[in-house]
């Protein structure tokens, strides 16, 4: 009986040793690497969803619903359009990493519908204390609410549309 009891007590350790033969790595143990990025189609007016940044800015902000994606690298990518009070428009294709609260600029849009890749644009922290940061608004309210990344572009569009009501 004592031998049986001793064998039963050792069973969990034996199982762990056997499991050690397999490589059970979790994604968080692997170093993060970014996937190759493909520029989206230029935004169309009918696909733009307005979003609020704060009352501290008079600029109007829009996201192109068709451009939103979540890559295999867990980056939320999107096209943003900023319209100044005087009418000037800036178009850019960007990404947000919810896990690290970082943003990256990939390309600038031109009025003729073409893109120019951003030069030397690396990952940088989102200004979470700025009332003028549209990336902060996207991070906190639409793409990473409560610090949890959206699953896909459809969920991000849903968040944007609900807030726009």
The largest sheet, given as strand count, sense and whether it forms a barrel, is:
8 strands, antiparallel
Record field, number of beta strands: 8
Oligomer classification = single chain
CATH architecture: Beta Barrel
Keywords: Signal
Pfam families: CNP1
Protein name: CNP1-like uncharacterized domain-containing protein
InterPro entries: CNP1-like_dom (IPR014861)
Description:
Strand 5 and strand 6 form a beta hairpin. The chain contains three helices and eight strands; from the N terminus they run H-E-E-E-E-E-E-E-E-H-H. By secondary structure, the protein is α+β, with helices and mostly antiparallel strands. Strands 1, 2, 3, 4, 5, 6, 7 and 8 form an eight-stranded antiparallel sheet that branches. About 9% of the residues have low confidence. Helices cover 24% and strands 25% of the residues. It starts with a helix and ends with a helix. It has one domain: Lipocalin (Beta Barrel), CATH 2.40.128.
């Amino acid at each position: 009986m004592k031998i049986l009891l001793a064998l039963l007590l050792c069973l969990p350790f034996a199982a762990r040793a056997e499991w050690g033969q397999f490589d059970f790595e979790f994604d968080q143990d692997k170093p993060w690497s970014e996937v190759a990025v493909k520029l989206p189609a230029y935004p169309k007016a009918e696909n733009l969803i307005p979003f609020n940044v704060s009352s501290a800015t008079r600029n109007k902000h829009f996201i192109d619903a068709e451009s939103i994606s979540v890559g295999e690298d867990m980056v939320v990518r999107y096209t943003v359009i900023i319209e100044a009070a005087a009418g000037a428009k800036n178009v850019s294709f960007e990404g947000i990493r919810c896990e690290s609260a970082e943003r990256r600029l990939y390309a600038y849009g031109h009025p003729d519908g073409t893109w120019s890749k951003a030069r030397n644009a690396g990952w940088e922290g989102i200004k979470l204390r700025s009332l003028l940061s549209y990336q902060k608004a996207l991070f906190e309210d639409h793409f990473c609410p409560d610090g949890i990344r959206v699953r896909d572009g459809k969920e991000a569009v849903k968040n944007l549309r609900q807030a726009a009501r």
